[in-house]
């Protein structure tokens, strides 16, 4: 893990400080169109999810990575965010390994283009290649096309 003193924690209920850090991480790393206006918006989003489990990567008390799994239409879905200062150091792979140990199938939506920008003005780089390297299948005929996101469905099975 390249000199990162990080540890992984499974969390079922988030406290306010964690939500605040996740709110900041989400808005920093995802495209501007997906940003939440306030923590309550993130909280409302998470409260609509069913059977949620959170996995956080902490460096001391700072959350530098987050994944969560949840049920949608009787299937297990997931999302992952890694702080860009800690990307390409194996943390995403480790987080996916944890999810794969606990699940037999995972589904997700992945932005498959580099046309969006982040809040800081940088280009949001599609993580699709990362998921392909981690044995996810691209379901190219299944797309999510909304004003806020254009994404392809991905799937992993044991």
Q: What is the oligomeric state here?
A: single chain
Terminus-to-terminus distance: 25 Å
Low-confidence stretches: none
Give the beta-strand count: 7
**Secondary-structure element order, as H and E?**
EHHEEEHEHEE
Give the helix proportion (percent range). Answer: 25-40%
Mean pLDDT score: 95
Radius of gyration: 15 Å
Please report which band the strand proportion falls in: under 5%, 5-15%, 15-25%, 25-35%, 35-45% or over 45%: 35-45%
Biggest pleated sheet: 4 strands, antiparallel
Give the structural class: alpha+beta
Shape: globular
Strand order of the largest sheet: 1-2-3-4
Count of individual helical segments: 4
Write structural notes for this entry.
It is built from four helices and seven strands. The chain has 158 residues and is α+β, with helices and mostly antiparallel strands. A hairpin with a 2-residue loop joins strand 3 and strand 4. The model has no long low-confidence stretch (mean pLDDT 95).
Features:
4 helices, 27% helix, 7 strands, 4-stranded antiparallel sheet, 3-stranded antiparallel sheet, alpha+beta, single chain, 158 residues
Could you provide a short overview of the structure?
With 158 residues, the protein is an alpha+beta fold.
Can you lay out the helices and strands and say which pair or pack?
Elements: E1 6-11, H1 16-29, H2 39-48, E2 50-59, E3 62-72, E4 75-82, H3 91-102, E5 105-111, H4 128-133, E6 137-145, E7 150-157
């Amino acid at each position: 893990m390249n000199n990162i003193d990080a540890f992984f924690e499974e969390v079922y209920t988030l406290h306010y400080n964690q939500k605040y850090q996740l709110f900041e991480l989400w808005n920093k790393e995802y495209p501007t169109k997906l940003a939440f206006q306030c923590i309550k918006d993130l909280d409302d989003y998470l409260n609509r999810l069913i059977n949620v489990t959170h996995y956080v990567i902490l460096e001391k008390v700072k959350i530098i990575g987050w994944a969560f799994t949840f049920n949608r239409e009787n299937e297990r879905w997931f999302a992952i965010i890694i702080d860009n200062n800690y990307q390409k150091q194996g943390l995403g792979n480790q987080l996916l390994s944890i999810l794969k140990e606990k699940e037999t199938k995972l589904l997700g939506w992945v932005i498959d283009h580099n046309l969006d920008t982040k809040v800081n003005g940088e280009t949001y780089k599609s993580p699709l290649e990362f998921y392909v390297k981690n044995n996810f299948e691209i379901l190219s005929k299944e797309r999510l096309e909304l004003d806020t996101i254009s994404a392809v469905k991905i799937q992993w099975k044991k």
